[in-house]
Specification:
This protein is an alpha+beta fold and 119 residues long. It is built from 2 helices and 6 strands; from the N terminus they run H-H-E-E-E-E-E-E.
Amino acid sequence: MLLKKKITIALAGLAVLGAAPTFAQGIGHSFFMRGSIVGKDTTGTVVCVGKADGATVGQVLEVYRVETTPGPSKTPGAGFRRVAVGHVKIDHIFDDHFAHVSIADGTPAVHDIVELRKK
């Protein structure tokens, strides 16, 4: 029984260490804003993707808008879908969490989701 308790404590410790990067970035960034267009300022559109996310200048990000589907959903969460609305290109990373982008094509808007293209 003592061995089982030690293993449980060790696994809990590993879980906390694995979550450290998430907590270092801040809970708001990690769970609510990351990967979204957060606004516009005098120099352009701002996305919540930065150095901490591995972003680099010149990367092209796909932009999606979440839409609801009409009618009742058969399973929880099935009433939503992601619709591609364009692309943005990272022009300047100014923080661990934020970057300025330019609209490459489409109609990206505030609160849309941005995602790095998978090649």
